[in-house]
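Technical annex, item 7. During the second reporting period the consortium partners agreed on a shared format for inverse folding records so that results from different sites could be compared directly. Each record opens with the tokenized structure and is followed by the designed sequence. A conforming record, contributed by the partner at site C, is shown below for reference.
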């Protein structure tokens, strides 16, 4: 260990050199404070300094102050060797940065004992400093890795199209990474998918599972998949990747295109609140299943709850971090306080109101669990939306008439499928149509519009052609539930029958006279048409403007919607076949 001796008396320096040499210390010397600064600067490894107080050029007190300043975070003990013995002088030595003092004449035993003590302190400090540097390095590396993971995580979870009108979410992680996940996606026909999940634990280990969930959710909801298929795929994936002690409590909901029907799958979560526009509770959907990632595929249950929604319904789902939030006394917010807060919202947006309630209850207590909420506002009064959509489409057409020519080169093609009774019972019967249209060169906006038309015509063929349902039931609000109960029962009992869907792209030169007139009016003669022909094997049904207008007033769909979206619409074969044409822009 290197020791610097600073004394203006050569005899004193020589005496200390003999002692230090005997005990294996490496010796350096200086005759005043200024020389001490130079020697200290030249030999970075000096560990202990033996400093005299009164010296010419620069005294020991000033030299100590400067050495301590230059040392920065390094620990370099300074031991004053002085004949001074009054308390004020000794206090001044320590205040200047000294760590210890030894009286003159120097006693060898005392000197070596003090040096050994400070040697241990120095070595301990060096060990701590080294460990601290290692910790700083690992912390920086961890922060870099977290930044990369956070970037990937956000790109997976928060992707284009994940913000949906009518859906409000709140996510508050207890750590940097979140074991809760909230996902939303607008379906191709105008409905809403929403998923909220709570993985075991928090932090990075819990957040890892959210990424494959997001991939599955966005991929399958983009294709219009049934929520039964989505949760089954999620469960299969989690069974493959999660350790046995991890799982995901989850809720996935789907709001139908007309915002009239709610479908819910819930596993291991608290109840879903359904509220009217005055925030009165109209229903609670309780969990019916085990969490995702616990059951093998043959054990997994995918049954969903289906509910008809009155106008302006709010749907609230949340993770247990809300009801299990604790105040300073360890008391939980609980379901009773949640219910009271919900009822007191009085038509306001629920999430800000609930956050105020739980924040007030906690009164500054630390958050100890991830907390997430999702609120979906459902409005089945569709006529105004249809009008706005039709107006927006007209504006888009007007802007694109003179500039958009990319579809003029789309090749003609035809695609035909036939669905039997068993296939018609599947909620995802029309699953891949949007992907097929996009693969054929039809852009997303037009493929989504096409899907809306196809699904509307398909449902008409199924409900009126094969199932022989009476639309007059829907003329009264209370008849909706009876209508859909009957639909579900008859579809379950359907043994025979089929619906054929025929899609084709028709180039402009094949347009009919009526269509040519329409195109001329639109100043566009280079746009192809998409032909949609749907044929069912039922007994047919009689169409009338009056019946559709009656349906339109209560349901928000029907002939007026189809007329607004299509450029031509014709029924034949006694109502068993419908031919719709859509100009692709």
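Designed sequence (site C submission):
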């Amino acid at each position: 260990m290197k020791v610097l001796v600073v004394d203006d008396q050569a005899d004193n320096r020589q005496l200390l050199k003999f002692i230090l040499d005997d005990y294996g210390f490496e010796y350096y010397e200086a005759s005043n404070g200024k020389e001490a600064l130079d020697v200290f600067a030249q030999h970075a490894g000096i560990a202990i300094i033996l400093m005299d107080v009164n010296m010419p050029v620069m005294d020991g007190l000033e030299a100590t102050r400067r050495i301590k300043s230059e040392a920065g975070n390094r620990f370099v003990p300074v031991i004053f060797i002085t004949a001074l013995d009054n308390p004020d002088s000794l206090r001044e030595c320590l205040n200047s940065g000294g760590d210890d003092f030894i009286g003159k004449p120097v006693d060898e035993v005392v000197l070596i004992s003090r040096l050994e003590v400070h040697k241990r302190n120095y070595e301990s400090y060096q060990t701590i400093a080294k460990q601290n540097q290692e910790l700083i390095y690992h912390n920086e590396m961890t922060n870099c890795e977290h930044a990369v993971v956070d970037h990937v995580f956000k790109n997976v979870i928060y992707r284009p199209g994940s913000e949906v009108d009518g859906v409000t979410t709140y996510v508050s992680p207890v750590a940097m990474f979140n074991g809760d996940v909230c996902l939303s996606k607008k379906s191709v026909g105008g409905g809403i998918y929403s998923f909220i999940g709570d993985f075991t634990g928090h932090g990075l280990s819990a957040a890892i599972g959210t990424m494959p969930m997001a991939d599955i959710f966005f991929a399958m909801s983009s294709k219009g998949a049934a929520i039964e298929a989505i949760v089954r795929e999620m469960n299969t994936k989690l069974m493959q990747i999660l350790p046995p002690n991890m799982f995901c409590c989850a809720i996935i909901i789907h709001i139908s295109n007309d915002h009239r029907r709610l479908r819910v799958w819930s596993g291991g979560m608290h109840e879903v609140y359904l509220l009217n526009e005055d925030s009165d509770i109209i229903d609670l959907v309780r969990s019916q299943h085990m969490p995702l990632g616990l059951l093998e595929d043959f054990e997994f249950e995918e049954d969903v709850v289906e509910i008809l929604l009155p106008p302006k319904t709010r749907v609230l789902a949340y993770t247990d971090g809300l009801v299990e939030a604790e105040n300073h006394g360890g008391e939980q917010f609980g379901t009773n306080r949640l219910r009271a807060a919900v009822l007191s919202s009085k038509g306001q947006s629920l999430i800000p109101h609930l956050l105020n309630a739980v924040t007030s209850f906690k009164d500054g207590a630390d958050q100890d669990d991830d907390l997430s909420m999702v609120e979906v506002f459902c409005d089945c009064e569709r006529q105004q939306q249809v009008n706005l959509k039709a107006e927006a489409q007209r504006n888009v057409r007007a802007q694109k008439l003179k500039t958009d020519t990319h579809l003029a080169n789309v090749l003609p093609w035809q695609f035909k499928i036939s669905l039997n009774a068993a296939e018609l019972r599947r909620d995802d019967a029309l699953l891949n149509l949007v992907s097929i249209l996009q693969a054929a060169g039809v852009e997303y906006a037009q493929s989504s519009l096409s899907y809306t038309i196809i699904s509307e015509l398909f449902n008409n063929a199924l409900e009126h052609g094969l199932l022989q349902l009476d639309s007059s039931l829907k003329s009264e609000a209370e008849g909706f539930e009876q209508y859909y109960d009957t639909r579900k029962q008859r579809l379950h009992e359907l043994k025979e029958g089929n619906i054929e869907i025929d899609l084709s792209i028709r180039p402009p030169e094949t347009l009919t006279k009526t269509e040519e007139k329409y195109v001329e009016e639109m100043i566009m003669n280079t746009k192809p048409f998409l032909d949609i022909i749907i044929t069912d094997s039922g007994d047919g049904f009689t169409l009338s403007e009056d019946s559709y207008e009656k349906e339109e007033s209560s349901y928000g769909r029907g002939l007026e919607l189809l007329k607004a979206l299509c450029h031509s619409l014709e029924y034949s074969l006694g109502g068993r076949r419908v031919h719709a044409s859509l100009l692709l822009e």
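The domain at 160-378 is CATH 3.60.40.10 (Phosphatase 2c; domain 1). The longest strand covers residues 498-506. All partners now use this format for quarterly exchanges.
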